[in-house]
């Protein structure tokens, strides 16, 4: 990274580690002693990264992965003790509300990120970790990964991740998973629509990741960002006619853009487009 790269100005603590290889940014959740339970510092660090790269078209994919062979075991219970003390001092639930809502803001930020977000899911994928998996564009799981929404068994609710789980797996399946709190493996996660591919060992997991990143690189950077934004709009209550009119205008702009012309020439000349090796 150059001195002027936006990531150089990002303030992150040791709860995450950043690794950039060309156009691919890897975010390692780095609290292996707690199965990468998500602390408030981790949440804020992730938000700082995504805010910094929002306009950075040189970063085409973000890969989430956990150190210690676990993805994320949910929220950090230790943080809750401090929040409980703050709530008692204030005599209100505001500290709980602020803490929970900050996590929701992070999930929303990742969900709306213009980059293609890839989640590599191993070990524990629980609670908030499950929610983070549900906002990835591509999710690849080890067959032995353990998924679940354990919140109701703890006397709480999956307050911020619930809408994203419903979008991912549908209301009927989300009801069963959230209300029963059952654990399930990677194969079941594939069946439910949480993940897209399942690896049967570490070697296959790495191969699937590399194959996915190569496919991301073959897609035009600006076209990918515009396509992701269009897909998000398609899932809202926006009027269809207006959406399709706008999409047609975007299509025309893309055809006449440098990307569109390079993509067409590469196809005609039977070669890879220039962005494929970035």
From TrEMBL:
Transmembrane segments: none annotated. Keywords: Isomerase. Pfam families: ECH_1. One of its GO terms (biological process) is isoprenoid catabolic process. CDD domains: crotonase-like (cd06558). GO terms for molecular function: isomerase activity. InterPro entries: ClpP/crotonase-like_dom_sf, Enoyl-CoA_hydra/iso, Enoyl-CoA_hydra_C, Enoyl-CoA_Hydratase/Isomerase. Belongs to the enoyl-CoA hydratase/isomerase family. This is Enoyl-CoA hydratase/isomerase family protein. It comes from Acinetobacter lanii.
């Amino acid at each position: 990274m150059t001195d002027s790269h936006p990531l150089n100005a990002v303030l992150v603590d040791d709860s995450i580690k950043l690794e950039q290889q060309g156009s691919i940014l890897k975010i390692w959740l780095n609290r292996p002693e707690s199965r990468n339970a998500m602390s408030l510092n981790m949440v804020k660090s992730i938000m700082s990264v995504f805010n910094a790269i929002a306009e950075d078209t040189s970063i085409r994919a973000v890969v989430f992965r956990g150190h210690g062979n676990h993805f994320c075991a949910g929220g950090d219970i230790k943080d809750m003790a401090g929040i409980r003390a703050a709530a008692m001092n204030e005599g209100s639930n505001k500290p709980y509300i602020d803490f929970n809502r900050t996590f929701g803001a992070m999930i929303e930020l990742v969900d709306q990120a213009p980059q293609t977000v890839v989640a590599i899911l191993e070990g524990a994928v629980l609670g908030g970790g499950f929610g983070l998996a549900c906002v990835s564009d591509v999710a690849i799981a080890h067959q032995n990964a353990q998924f679940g929404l354990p919140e109701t068994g703890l006397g709480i609710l999956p307050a911020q991740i619930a809408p994203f789980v419903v979008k991912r797996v549908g209301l009927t399946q989300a009801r069963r998973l959230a209300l029963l709190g059952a654990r399930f493996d990677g194969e079941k996660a594939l069946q439910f629509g949480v993940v897209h591919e399942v690896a049967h060992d570490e070697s296959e997991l790495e191969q699937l990741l590399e194959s996915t990143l190569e496919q991301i690189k073959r897609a035009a950077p600006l076209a990918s960002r515009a396509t992701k934004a269009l897909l998000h709009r398609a899932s809202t209550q926006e009027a269809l006619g207006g959406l399709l009119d706008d999409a047609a205008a975007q299509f025309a702009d893309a055809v006449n853009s440098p990307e569109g012309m390079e993509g067409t020439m590469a196809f005609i000349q039977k070669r890879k487009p220039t962005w494929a090796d970035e």
